[in-house]
Amino acid sequence: MFGPAWLAFGHSFAEEAEHDQAMAAYFTAAQLMKGCHLPVLYIGLEYGMTNNLKLAERFFKQALNIAPEDPFVLHEMGVVAFQNGDLDTAEKYFMDALEKVQAIEKEMLTEKWEPLLNNLGHVCRKLGRYEESLTYHRQALVLCPQNPSTMAAIGFVHSLQSHFDMAIDYFHKALGLRRDDTFSVTMLAQTIELYIGEMKPYEGAEELPEKFEGIPLPEYNVADVGDVKLGDVTAELKLEGDGPMMLESWGQDASTSSLDIEVEMEDS
Questions:
Q1: Distance (Å, rounded) from C-alpha 219 to C-alpha 208?
Q2: For the whole prediction, is pTM greater than 0.85?
Q3: pLDDT band at 149 (very low <50, low <70, confident <90, very high)
């Protein structure tokens, strides 16, 4: 009878990042709501928030056994697979979740599914499918047009494609929405440097020689972009050129908003 109240009680603690109290409330809800996957799912989310990913995976699997058709559970399993470096499995879980959502919401996805689309974009980028990655990020941008992290992710993909002018444009848009975005600031500076290296000194100029008076010209490569970050704590992402990334995950309010689970990824 009081199970949903304990869930709501846990959500209030989770909103304040009080993970121990939140998990205690969710465990109580799990005892009162036997056979329901929601308390188990939220326990897994809290373990993920505390970087205890093995326990998070165990509870997500329990939730999946109870509700194999729930797109939220499928999404979290995709996050775990991504963290384990199994990109193909991660993509499968994300695509299964998307198919379930599209079957329910036939006309248009609601804003709460934006993290799912962004995460599909991240996986496709890791797999080297840049155009497909851009498609998913743009779909996410339609659902939430003012998300600076999505714009930064689009800019990042453009920079990997050496579309430096478009990358610069998106990094500027991201900074227009969040001025202290460390990732966008760093990537903007690096991308401008790469863009300048490709520009001709004036319109109609011939290509610059590889050497000028015996001095080698600098070679620019997008792989030269160093460790850069995009940090956040509310349903967005943290990108690095060759480091950790915050993959978007579902959070813990009564309407299933989103929080983050930190996972590792590298971009080749």
A1: 12
A2: no
A3: very high
